[in-house]
Input
Amino acid sequence: MSAGALLVARLFLGLPFVIWGMMKLRGGEAQLVPVLAKMGLPDARVLAFLIGACELLGGVAVCIGYPVLMVCSLLGVWCLLTGYMSHKGDINQLLAHVGLAGGFFLLAAVGPGSLSLFGGTPTGFFAYLR
Output
């Protein structure tokens, strides 16, 4: 796959998470808190902010292409878990999450491409974070 195509794929997968994370951190968590509280999760407000931070940081990491293997694997599992736990009653949302997970797992398998931070091959200490 060409480096340009991988960059576009990373942007299509990462930018929604950047936007969702920023929305949650800028007050959008108010809509998420009641949902989390209804699920019986402890301290729903803090959890909503943590979810927003994870989405924002994960989206940025995917967009810059580093560390793609770790972040894409985690976001793929994230999509499957949130799809099952939050959207199992809505088949369209569930399938959208499954599709996102598939994209993240594919990107983790293929790698970030040469148009990424460190050119896709970090050295030294950063090589351990792939």
Summary: The two ends are 19 Å apart (CA to CA). Residues 35 and 55 are 17 Å apart (CA to CA).
